Give the backbone structure.
Amino acid sequence: MTDHDPGKDPTPGDERLRAAAEAWDERYAASPQLFREAPDETLVEIASALPPGRALDLGAGEGRNALWLAAAGWSVTAVDASAVALERAASRARAEGVEIETVRADLRTYLETVAAERPQGAFDLVVVAFVHPGPQERAELLRAAAGVVSPGGRLFVVGHHVESHGKVGPPDRANLYAEEDVHGEDLDGLEICRLERRAGKSDVADPGVDLVLLARRALASS
């Protein structure tokens, strides 16, 4: 397990993002395990059919997806704004004997840095699981996430669907996912392979409905 800039302020000069990072630290610190430990079931289905490569887990939290991918042979970078969550992921990685890189950073800032360094794409699989910013921020995040997908690579997104409003997920309906909010032209040239609803699965009594997106970048032409 490697840890990149563990003490670095993830949001220099941006008080709103700094406050959000601190709020997530407080939320994680208030519970010994905030979210379930099992990896996302659709991610497991998709990644199991792919040859392991470089994976990026955005908003990795306590590391449930990053750790499963690492155990399956992927080289994984887990990015989150919460130092508390990433330390849990790192601790579990050590206990399970797997290697992950943890990066404490604002997701958009991290993606912009990677895109500048690797304009042809850096990751074979990019995961955005249950990250729920507002509509414009979400569109910008997905576009940036798509931008670091390598030729032949995939972008996997899952989040609470608008049908889950009032049951699970953010209280603001605008922060939930809907099919009409996802447009292929906003995914930096990726082709949408799957866009579908599924029954939610979480620790709450009524997990509602999730939206799943899988998109792929075509292989570079020779």
Notes: Residues 2-216 form a domain with the Rossmann fold fold (CATH 3.40.50.150). The chain is about 30% helix and 25% strand.
